[in-house]
Amino acid sequence: MFKRDPEKSVQRAAEREEKQRARTEAADKRHADKEALKDWRKLHPAEKTMNTAAMMHLWPSSKFGLTGQGPVLGGQAEFVDAGAHKAWTATRLAGGVATGGLSALAGRKNKGAAVINLTFGNGAAQTYSVTPDSTNLRAANQYVNAFNTLAAQLANEEGSTQPSEAVQPQPQSVADELGKLKALVDQGVLTQEEFDQQKARLLGP
């Protein structure tokens, strides 16, 4: 009759116990980390706002003030909206029989351009295009405001003597804005006509 090896039985039992202990510790750690993050975000609500705005986009989300590209602390965000919107366009039916040659099919087409420029505390920088519709433009503006708010709060907590200079967007001159718009024209994102319109708006009457 087959007899079990007592030593192996004890060893297997010890291994099962060790695996169970490791699973329990991992579950406890996940729970503790989740609670810690929850408490941290209660004190830093801008991070939750930032991550909510980033949903369904390629914009980096944050956890404890850290993103995949770098820390929010010491960083800066900028939203450049070069007249981005969706404009109504129309196409003619073939032959125009049903409408007497008038436009019959209408839709919305992207016009202008918008981008988010991000600089992180480690010096890394990224630019993200924003689809020019009202929902995405609103989310982009919300994301940038939340990023800068979180950066400013973290700088204050670090005891920075001049947090506003480190994390707040610097006022842009007309020349700076025109330079950025010209770069969008060179990249083919903005048409010359759209550039001229924005230039007239910046220069004023």
Task: Report what the structure shows.
This protein has 205 residues and is of the alpha+beta class. It is 50% helix and 19% strand. It has helices at 6-43, 45-54, 134-157, 163-167, 174-186, 192-203, and strands at 76-92, 103-119, 125-129. The chain has a 3-stranded antiparallel sheet, with helices on both faces. The longest helix is centred in the first third of the chain and has 38 residues, at 6-43.
Question: Looking at the structure, what is the overall shape?
Answer: elongated
* Structural class estimated from helices and strands: alpha+beta
Number of helices: 6
- Tell me the strand percentage band: 15-25%
Number of extended strands: 3
Described by strand count, sense and barrel closure, the largest sheet is: 3 strands, antiparallel
Helix amount:
40-55%
The arrangement of helices and strands along the chain is HHEEEHHHH
**Rg, alpha carbons:** 27 Å
What's the overall average pLDDT, rounded? 77
> What distance lies between the first and last C-alpha atoms, to the nearest angstrom?
103 Å
Largest sheet, spatial ordering of strands? 1-2-3
Poorly predicted segments: 86-110, 161-167
Per-chain topology:
Elements: H1 6-43, H2 45-54, E1 76-92, E2 103-119, E3 125-129, H3 134-157, H4 163-167, H5 174-186, H6 192-203
Antiparallel strand pairs: 1-2, 2-3
Helix pairs in contact: 2-3, 5-6
Brief overview, please?
With 205 residues, the protein is an alpha+beta fold. Helix content is 50%, strand content 19%. It has a three-stranded antiparallel sheet with strand order 1-2-3, with helices on both faces.
